[in-house]
Specification:
The protein has about 400 residues and is mostly beta strands. It has a domain of about 120 residues: Rossmann fold, CATH 3.40.50. It has 3 helices and 29 strands.
Length: about 400
C-alpha cells in the first residue's frame, strides 16, 4: 500500500494537427496599446494590477503584439495621440475606485471607429481579475480570433498546509484571485464536475475510508458519492458530466473504474500492479492511463469494455502523469534530475517537448486544448505555468505559500 500511495502522489506531482504546431509570427499579430482613463487612474491599489492583467491576458491570447508602456488618456476623447497612430488598435479602460467595475472601449485606429464598448462588474472587489479576463475574451471574439474563453475559467487545486492537512482553493488562472473553499483535515484531488464549473468532486481522507464527495458551488451542499478502501481519486469526468473515471484499490492494488451517475461502478482495468489516472480520449469510448505493466510507469490506452491494452507511443521510460484532449496527450518524463512535459498523440509517434529544465509536473489541457497548464517546482516552491501551444507564449505565476498536490481547470 505504501508503494501505491507513493506512486499515486508522484503522478499527481510529477501525424499531428497543424493547428497545434503553427506559430504566429510577431509581425502577423495585431498591434495594440492599452490606455487607462486619466480621471480614475491610480485611484486604488488595484489599478497597476489591472493594467498588468490586461497586458498579460493580451499576451497569453497569442493574437497581439502589445505595447507594454503605461498610457493615460481620456476614455471619451475621440482624439488619438500622435505616438499611437502606428497602432492597429487601442484598448481604453476605466477602472472604478471601488475595484468592482471595469468599462472598456476597443478602438480601431485607422478610422477611429469603436469596435466594442462594454462594462463589467463583479460581486466582490477581490474578484477583480475576472473583469480583465472577461474583457479580453470579448475583445478577442470581437476581432474573430480563435477562442480564448479558458481565461475566464476557475482553477481548483489542493495544497498542503501542514502534515496530513490540506485545503482546496479556487482561483483565477493568474492566482491574482484565490479563495479557500474546503478546509479541515486531508482533502485531495479536486476535479470539476462539469464544463460549467458549477460543482466539483474531491476525496476526503478524514474518515475510516477515503470518500469521494460532490460539492455544489452555489449552495455549498456536499453529497457523498462513494467510499473505498485504499485509494479513491476522481481523475476525469465525461463531457456530459454523467460518468466518472475513478482510481480505486478495493482489492489492494489500484485499478481504473467507471462510475455512472445514478448507476453503478464498472471495473475497467484488471492488473496485479498499478493502474491510475484514467482519462477519456476521442469520443470517450476509450481511455488512457498510467500503469507500471512493464516495470516502470508508462502511458497505455484501452477501449472501454475491451480487455486489450496498448502502450501509447511516447518519449521516455518513466511517465508518471498524463492528461488528454481529443487524440492528444500530455505527459511528464523523468530525465535525470529534471522532469519535463511532452505533447504526443495516441495514434502516432508525434512528440513535442514543452519544457526543457527543472521539475515540471501535473500537465493539464485548457478547455479548448490549445493552452497547457503545469506546475513548476523552483527552489522548493510551486509556480503555475502556462504555454500557448500555437504561439509558445508563456507565463509563470508563483504560489505565495503551500505545495500544490493536485489541480484542475
Amino acid at each position: 500500500m505504501r508503494l501505491i500511495l507513493f506512486f499515486l502522489l508522484t503522478f499527481n506531482l510529477f501525424a499531428v494537427d497543424a493547428e497545434l504546431t503553427i506559430e504566429k509570427d510577431v509581425d502577423s499579430k495585431a498591434s495594440i496599446s492599452v490606455i487607462e482613463d486619466e480621471n480614475s487612474a491610480g485611484s486604488s491599489r488595484f489599478h497597476q494590477k489591472m493594467f498588468n492583467l490586461l497586458i498579460n491576458d493580451l499576451k497569453m491570447s497569442g493574437h497581439f503584439n502589445i505595447d507594454t508602456n503605461y498610457h493615460k488618456g481620456s476614455f471619451d476623447d475621440v482624439m488619438i495621440a500622435p505616438e499611437l497612430h502606428d497602432r492597429e488598435y487601442l484598448l481604453k479602460y476605466n477602472y472604478s475606485p471601488s475595484g468592482d467595475k471595469l468599462d472598456i472601449k476597443l478602438v480601431q485606429v485607422y478610422d477611429n471607429s469603436v469596435l466594442l464598448q462594454k462594462g463589467y462588474s463583479v460581486n466582490s472587489a477581490k474578484r477583480y481579475p475576472f473583469l480583465a479576463h472577461n474583457a479580453i475574451v470579448d475583445i478577442n471574439n470581437a476581432l474573430n480570433y480563435e477562442d480564448i474563453s479558458w481565461m475566464k475559467r476557475h482553477l481548483i487545486f489542493s495544497k498542503y498546509i501542514a502534515p496530513r492537512k490540506s485545503e482546496i482553493w479556487v482561483a483565477d488562472y493568474t492566482l491574482s484571485f484565490a479563495n479557500v473553499i474546503v478546509r479541515g483535515g486531508l482533502n485531495l484531488f479536486p476535479k470539476w464536475a462539469n464544463q460549467n464549473q458549477t460543482a466539483f468532486y474531491y476525496t476526503s481522507y478524514n474518515s475510516l475510508l477515503p470518500t469521494l464527495y460532490r460539492i455544489d458551488m452555489s449552495t455549498g451542499n456536499r453529497k457523498k458519492i462513494i467510499s473505498s478502501e485504499g485509494m479513491l481519486v476522481c481523475s476525469d469526468v465525461s463531457r456530459d458530466g454523467t460518468r466518472l473515471l475513478l482510481t480505486m484499490a478495493p482489492h489492494g492494488q489500484t485499478d481504473i473504474y467507471e462510475y455512472t451517475i445514478g448507476g453503478g461502478t464498472k471495473r475497467l482495468t484488471k492488473f496485479g500492479g498499478i493502474d491510475v489516472n484514467g482519462k477519456y480520449i476521442g469520443d470517450e469510448s476509450k481511455i488512457v492511463f498510467v500503469s507500471n505493466r512493464m516495470g516502470r510507469p508508462n502511458i497505455y490506452t484501452k477501449a472501454i469494455g475491451s480487455s486489450s491494452v496498448s502502450k501509447v507511443p511516447q518519449y521516455g521510460n518513466y511517465n508518471s502523469s498524463c492528461d488528454a484532449f481529443d487524440k492528444y496527450i500530455l505527459y511528464s518524463v523523468k530525465e535525470g534530475k529534471s522532469v519535463n512535459i511532452y505533447l504526443g498523440s495516441v495514434y502516432s509517434s508525434y512528440v513535442r517537448p514543452l519544457t526543457s529544465n527543472g521539475i515540471n509536473q501535473l500537465p493539464r489541457f485548457s478547455s479548448n486544448g490549445r493552452v497547457v497548464l503545469y506546475i513548476k517546482k523552483i527552489g522548493g516552491k510551486n509556480s503555475i505555468g502556462y504555454m500557448n501551444l500555437a504561439t509558445k507564449d508563456t507565463a509563470l505565476y508563483p504560489m505565495i505559500s503551500g505545495k500544490i498536490q493536485s489541480i484542475d481547470w
